[in-house]
């Protein structure tokens, strides 16, 4: 009878994960002690792993990872074209610029790692998540994605405590104290504000007391309290969407900029990147810059006010997300006006509206699946695995067919990305969590 | 010698990992069928491998090798420290150039291809797991060089033209970043620059 409740598959992964980055040989007795199974089970598995080539004997009583483990390195990092899913990659286009260094947007934090050995603990873990708010569909989807990852990793998680700070930094401070009081071993946080002094100080004090803190989506300006930050490239979202709009307009036209929630780090970085690109086109005139709280109502009201004030439509509306983009498009529809080119994805409704009304658009979904990724990174931290200082979840470029420009090519067509069977509020970048919603819709 | 329950467990583990990299599967049932296991056991094993990071699902739900699998495989070469950073580096190389980007490990003239992103400009080129270098040449860290690879075990297999730069070396092994190149076309200068930039980012 084995002493643990694990399956042999789980024991195999535990054995293979027990070797360090240098493949330092380990004593079989140490491997078995860490495994926690009976001697006969442990030895049986070790012998089977050696026979199959996953482990190799190094010296008397020592083993290390073998040839089979090395062979596991050959693997695609994203799905191949034979995918059976609805996602279809766009057809090959011309490579970008033929001369000069490509803009690879290197961020040193992506390749700097943080040693987390000091946070190593025995599972199952108690983790707290302080969410800035759940006031829009994206934030709810991100939290759903995190909850989905909790289910997948349930054996490693004793409890995941979640608090909604309702966009109030003072409330967030109190909720963090409450989570700490409940004995969490790691704090996941999406901050309500980039520069709230009390919040930043509280996080700093907790980090100094030895609590690992993983920020997701939004972080404070002072990142010294963070173990790591899980995000997506806001710079890429702002830059590519503005570049597409400029090229779509052939470098000439009046543009309105609708940002998200004032003072939040993603909104600031996307807007900065967009303005930088637009400033390179002398014929592009940025008539207005406004904030919309990342809500359809915010987009609707802002565009309504601007149309009333100016009396004429712009040539393009840059939105840093479809959260407000749908409100903007709706305003033009309700007034019976031609809908100018738009940017911004995220919401299923944005794709539905733009495809139905044939609105030229580009979308770069801010991946809600970063919730799941943040929990996985949190588990790595508590397992003592090194993690990058910044973890980026990839952002795809989504365009309706025929809307590619000279520099901006589609990773996926909008016609294949939209989910007609799902509701308007669905956020399509939830990752596997969305598959559950699709299965429900199908049944 | 008869197969023990432990051998069977190892075979199941291997079959599921292999199935995830052979063909894209968006549903556990397809992955399990491909691996040749029965459904009840297969579901349990798939869930366990996903929870332990040996399998993961991408945005569209397709099963891929997980981060723990990548870390374990690179650790087996002694390059486990590259594991947390290699994905963003390869992704940027692919996104910035539209070429297939890869990490490979060289041992003398043998080349084991590791994780890779398939790029649009070279999507017709399918990588194999192992090659040998056609004409050996010295590679130095930070310098990108054109290297032609020949598939191992196939005298008729297509040669692979690559651009490579070493980023780390350890005992017998050298880790290189590379691009797959379109045959009979000279690589653009921007590819050399991109690889050199990437090597600067991660070389010690």
How would you describe what is shown here?
The complex is a heterodimer of chains A (443) and B (204). By secondary structure, chain A is an alpha/beta fold. Chain A contains 15 helices and 19 strands. In chain A, 52% of the residues are buried. Chain B is α+β, with helices and mostly antiparallel strands. Helix content of chain B is 39%, strand content 25%. In chain B, the strands form two sheets. Chain B has a six-stranded antiparallel β-barrel with strand order 3-4-5-6-7-8. A two-stranded antiparallel sheet of chain B has the order 1-2. The N and C termini of chain B lie far apart (47 Å). In chain B, 57% of the residues are buried. Chains A and B meet through α1, α3, α4, β4 and β16 of A and α1, α3, α4, α5 and β4 of B. β4 of chain A pairs parallel with β4 of chain B.
Topology:
The complex is a heterodimer of chains A (443) and B (204).
Chain A: H1 8-17, E1 26-27, H2 28-35, H3 39-52, E2 55-59, E3 62-65, H4 67-71, E4 75-76, E5 113-114, E6 125-131, H5 137-152, E7 157-164, H6 169-181, E8 186-189, H7 197-208, E9 213-216, E10 228-231, H8 234-248, E11 253-259, H9 265-278, E12 284-291, H10 296-310, E13 316-319, H11 322-334, E14 341-343, H12 348-356, E15 361-362, H13 370-382, E16 387-388, E17 390-392, E18 398-399, E19 412-413, H14 414-417, H15 432-442
Parallel strand pairs in A: 6-7, 6-8, 8-9, 9-10, 10-17, 11-12, 11-13, 13-14, 14-15, 18-19
Antiparallel strand pairs in A: 1-3, 2-3, 5-16
Chain B: H1 5-22, H2 28-35, H3 39-51, E1 55-57, E2 63-65, H4 67-77, H5 83-97, E3 101-107, E4 110-117, E5 130-133, E6 145-151, E7 160-170, E8 173-180, H6 189-202
Antiparallel strand pairs in B: 1-2, 3-4, 3-8, 4-5, 5-6, 6-7, 7-8
**How would you classify the helix and strand content of chain B by structural class?**
alpha+beta
β content of chain A, as a range?
A: 15-25%
Number of helices of chain B: 6
Pair of chains with the largest interface and how many residues each contributes: A-B, 89 and 92 residues
Distance between the termini of chain A: 42 Å
> What is the overall shape of chain B?
globular
Question: Which radius of gyration of chain B do the C-alpha atoms yield?
Answer: 18 Å
Secondary structure tally: strands of chain B: 8
Count the DSSP helices of chain A. 15
Summarize the main sheet of chain A.
Answer: 6 strands, parallel
What structural class is derived from the secondary structure elements of chain A? alpha/beta
The helix content of chain A, as a percent range, equals 25-40%
The sequence of SSEs of chain B as H and E is HHHEEHHEEEEEEH
The percentage of residues in β strands of chain B lies in: 25-35%
* DSSP helix fraction of chain B: 25-40%
Largest sheet strand order of chain A: 7-6-8-9-10-17
Widest beta sheet: strand line-up of chain B? 3-4-5-6-7-8
Oligomer: heterodimer
Unreliable segments of chain B (pLDDT under 50, ≥5 consecutive)? none
Low-confidence stretches of chain A: 82-89, 91-99
């Amino acid at each position: 009878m084995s002493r643990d409740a694990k399956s042999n598959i789980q024991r195999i992964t535990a054995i293979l994960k027990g070797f360090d980055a240098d493949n330092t040989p380990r004593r079989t007795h140490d491997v078995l002690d860490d495994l926690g199974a009976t001697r006969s089970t442990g030895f049986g598995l070790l012998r089977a792993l050696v026979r199959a080539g996953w482990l190799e004997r190094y010296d008397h009583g020592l083993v290390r990872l073998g040839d089979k483990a090395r062979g596991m390195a050959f693997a695609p990092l994203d799905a191949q074209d034979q995918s059976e899913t609805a996602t279809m990659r766009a057809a090959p286009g011309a490579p970008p610029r033929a001369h000069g260094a490509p803009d690879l947007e290197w961020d040193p934090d992506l390749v700097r790692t943080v040693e987390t050995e000091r946070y190593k603990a025995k599972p199952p873990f108690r983790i707290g998540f302080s969410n800035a708010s759940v006031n829009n569909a994206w934030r709810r989807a991100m939290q759903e994605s995190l909850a989905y990852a909790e289910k997948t990793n349930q054996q490693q998680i004793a409890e995941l405590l979640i608090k909604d700070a309702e966009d109030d930094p003072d409330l967030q401070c109190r909720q963090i104290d409450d989570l700490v009081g409940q004995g969490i071993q790691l704090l996941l946080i999406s901050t309500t504000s980039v520069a709230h002094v009390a919040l930043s100080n509280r996080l700093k004090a907790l980090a100094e007391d030895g609590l690992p803190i993983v920020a997701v989506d939004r972080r404070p300006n002072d990142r010294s309290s963070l173990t790591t930050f899980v995000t997506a490239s806001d710079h890429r979202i702002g830059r590519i969407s503005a570049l597409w709009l400029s090229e779509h307009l052939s470098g000439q036209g009046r543009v309105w900029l609708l940002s998200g929630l004032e003072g939040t780090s993603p909104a600031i970085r996307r807007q900065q990147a967009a303005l930088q690109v637009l400033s390179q086109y002398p014929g592009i005139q940025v008539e207005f810059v406004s904030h919309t709280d990342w809500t359809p109502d915010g987009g609707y009201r802002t565009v309504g006010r601007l149309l009333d004030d100016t009396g004429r439509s712009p040539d393009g509306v840059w939105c840093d997300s479809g959260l407000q983009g749908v409100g903007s498009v709706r305003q033009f529809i309700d007034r019976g006006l031609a809908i100018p080119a738009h940017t911004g994805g995220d919401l299923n409704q944005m794709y539905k509206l733009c495809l139905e009304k044939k609105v030229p658009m580009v979308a770069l979904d801010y991946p809600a699946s970063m919730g799941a990724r943040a929990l996985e990174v949190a588990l790595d931290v508590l397992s003592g695995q090194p993690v990058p200082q910044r973890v980026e979840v990839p952002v795809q470029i989504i365009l309706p067919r025929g809307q590619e420009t000279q520099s901006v090519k589609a990773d996926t067509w909008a016609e294949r990305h939209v989910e007609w069977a799902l509701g308007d509020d669905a956020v399509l970048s939830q990752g596997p969590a969305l598959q559950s919603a699709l299965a429900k819709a199908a049944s | 010698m008869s197969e023990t329950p432990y051998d069977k467990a190892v075979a199941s583990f291997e079959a599921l990992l292999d199935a995830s990299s052979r063909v894209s599967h968006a549903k556990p049932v397809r992955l399990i069928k491909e691996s040749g296991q029965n459904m009840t056991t297969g579901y349990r094993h798939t869930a366990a491998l996903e929870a332990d990071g040996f399998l993961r699902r991408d945005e569209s739900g397709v099963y891929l090798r997980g981060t723990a699998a990548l870390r374990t495989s690179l650790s087996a070469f002694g390059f486990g420290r590259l594991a947390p950073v290699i994905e963003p580096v390869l992704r940027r190389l692919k996104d910035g150039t539209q070429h297939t980007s890869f990490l490979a490990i060289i041992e003398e003239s043998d080349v084991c291809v590791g994780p890779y992103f398939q790029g649009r400009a070279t999507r017709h080129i399918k990588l194999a797991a192992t090659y040998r270098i056609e004409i050996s040449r010295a590679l130095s860290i930070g310098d990108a060089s054109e290297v032609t690879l020949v598939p191992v075990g196939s005298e008729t297999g297509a040669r692979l033209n690559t651009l490579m730069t070493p980023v780390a070396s350890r005992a017998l092994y050298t880790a290189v970043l590379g691009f797959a190149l379109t045959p009979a076309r000279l690589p653009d200068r921007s590819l050399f620059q991109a690889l050199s930039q990437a090597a600067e980012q991660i070389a010690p």
